[in-house]
Amino acid sequence: MKQLTLGFIGFGLIGGSIAKALKERNTDISVCVYSRRKNPELDKGVAEGVIDELVYEIGGTFSSCDIIFLCAPVLKNIEFLPILRDLIKPSCILTDVGSVKGNICEAAKKYGLAERFIGGHPMAGSEKTGYANATGNLLENAYYLLTPTQENRPEDISLLKSLIVKTGANCILLPPKEHDMITAAISHVPHIIAVSLVNMVRRHDNEEENMKSFAAGGFKDITRIASSSPEMWQDICIANRDSIDYFLSCFEEELEHFRDLIAHQNMPKIHSSFQEAGEYRNSIPMRKNSLISRAYELYVNIADRAGAIATIATILSVKGISIKNIGIIHNREFADGVLKIELYNEEDADASRRLLIQNRYDVVDRN
The dihedral of CA 247, 252, 253, 257: what is its sign? Predict the structure, then answer.
């Protein structure tokens, strides 16, 4: 592959991780980044050699780019299309990293860029944002979806796919509409449900906030994603409104069905609903990266005695393992494992698990 000049409109967690992954794998690339304002994090990117050129105007520098990644919020990305249209060279490929594809593919067609635009969606992330949290292995083994259309040139699809594979991601091709239906079902609607659950509890909590005090275990697990960026999600809800509306209607039907089963005390059907859901959920393969970022957590049953937590922390620290967070789960109605240990990465989590088992601790396996 010849040397490629890559342009990035916005350079946060995802854009930064793409560039870092390619640089670390000795890919022959030059990276140009546009930022709308001064950012010390990006100055660090220049110092690290990840960013070759940092600019604050979209001008001549981007006219030499071979591939440009749009890494702004999903609605903002569309605003850059007419700006780039008359600037980029005929062979330049435009792509994005947003989680909605239909609207930007339609916009690319509207602006005469259908041949050059190939939608992209790296299905990886973190609860942290910004270039400071970008890593070269964020995309490793994650799905990276591309949504080419009939207007795209086969050689452009091949070039973009080969570059993505170099990040360590698994590149999959999907039609834009199918992509948006999938992400609505497995990401967008779950985020909305999580937000709705949190707001339901917030509105019905008492002055002492007893619901908040006792919320742990299952509630915190299924509502983790409610802490995502409000700015990002307001754009996603609008951009993918048709697919989201469809699956919200489907979810309403599921809830009404469950209400009916409970009202009629239909114990066999209630049992089968939980069983079928559990079997399907347990069949989902655990991946290092997913649409919802994975937390590296261990759950350990320990005796309530002085020094118990300190002993475990010492066992791990002696082996050079850093603990991100540690705490006691007080509400264990639906959770086994009284001590929760959060690690920084998968390797530390695996090593910690082995160490604790070797030291005769009861480590709980949770899916």
Answer: positive
Query: CB neighbours of 58 closer than 8 A, spacing ≥ 6?
Result: 9, 34, 80, 83, 84, 87
3-class secondary structure, 364 = strand
DSSP code at position 184: I
Q: How many residues does the chain have?
A: 367
Pairing of strands 296-301, 323-328: unpaired
Confidence band for 286, pLDDT divided at 50, 70 and 90 = low
pLDDT digits (tens, 9 = 90+) for 103-120: 999 999 999 999 999 999
Q: What is d(CA 51, CA 60) in angstroms, rounded to the nearest whole number?
A: 17
Rounded Cα distance between 350 and 344, Å, is 11
3-state secondary structure of 280: helix
- List, in sequence order, every residue forming a beta bridge with 121; answer none if it has no partner: 145
d(CA 161, CA 354): 37
Q: Are 33 and 42 in contact (CB under 8 A)?
A: yes
